[in-house]
Amino acid sequence: MSDPMSCPEFFQNPYPFYDELRSAAPVKQVTTGSGGRPSYLVTGYAEAKAAFTDPGLSKDTTRFFADRPSGRNLHPAVAHTMLATDPPEHTRLRRLVTKAFTTGAVTRLRPYIRHTADHLLDGLPKDGKADLVAGLAVPLPVTVICQLLGVPEADRAQVRTWSNDLFAAGQPQRIDEASHAVAGYMTDLIEAKRRTPDDSLLHHLIAVRDEGEKLSEDELVSLAVLLLVAGHETTTNFIGNAILALLQHPGLLDRVRTEPRELSSLLDELLRYDAPVGIATFRYSTQAITLGETEIPAGVPVLISPGAANRDPAHYPTPDRPDADRDARGHLAFGHGIHRCLGAPLALAEAEIALGGLLARFPGLRLAVTPEELRWRRTRLMRGLESLPVLTR
């Protein structure tokens, strides 16, 4: 049986597939990957939330793949990030960067985010056609995370290219090459900052590494790569998906235009409606567990789908329609539990500033193509647009 999550129809609109699967069982065995590996896909909300905190599920990819031969050549800094660890390693690594992404830290970043967004919006045509992915959704979070880490402005376009290549579904060689390129770049940048210190987050991590035993050199490179890539990929998708949802639902768009202050409270519903993460990062069962009514044996991958869980009608009535009056704060777009997205406050701030500025400047904003003509990224992990052509007047 071929992988059902590799067909073009899935990337264009995965929700009918998720609905069909969930109606059969909210946790169901599926075949994934070119090797036809059996996995369990979690599409129900209650089951997904439980899976995120189940002690019988591990993220330790090193242990899972230790005895499994592979032809891949991923750089260790990409293959074995903080996302692929369990406590206590995960707890130690996450603690080192948590302060940089607190609500207070993000509040201090807001003037820079707003300045960057305004600059990007200035570059959009006031009466013409624009691509809001290339013109806003990509460069805003890339610029902000690069600024936070201390990545030179001249290198930021290349960073985005490498990051995009890391999610090139079905192109393992391209992914592997990008992993070595970005890890090599980050290794060189760390050495450069050792010679010329600054006040960036990366320099702070270098100081932690050089002043004690809390962080190894390999962990330093890996953590820096993770922050660089994860710090903008999901936010890019979040912004693009949210703009599209508003443009496709005029009533919702009119409400935000009439009451701009409602935008911040609407962001959770937009995340629920079209989550930027389709399938959460890798987990596997270390022992036999039960999710919902499904028994899962030890030693198999468990794929949690936030996108599917957020459309579960058992938890969210009329889930296929965004509702400005819905309380969606319990959505799973950022995950749940100890691995909940560290950068959630930053992503929310960037999306609020980007969307608010865009809608204020372009009252006639509308799609330049039909929804069927939109091109989506061909990766099951991420749910995001390749481009978002709009008319600005």
UniProtKB/TrEMBL annotation:
Pfam families: p450. Keywords: Heme, Iron, Metal-binding, Monooxygenase, Oxidoreductase. PROSITE patterns: CYTOCHROME_P450. It comes from the Bacteria. Gene3D superfamilies: Cytochrome P450 (1.10.630.10). CDD domains: CYP107-like (cd11029). InterPro entries: Cyt_P450, Cyt_P450_B, Cyt_P450_CS, Cyt_P450_sf. Belongs to the cytochrome P450 family. PANTHER family: CYTOCHROME P450 YJIB-RELATED, P450, PUTATIVE (EUROFUNG)-RELATED. This is Cytochrome P450. It comes from Streptomyces ehimensis. The lineage of its organism: Bacteria, Bacillati, Actinomycetota, Actinomycetes, Kitasatosporales.
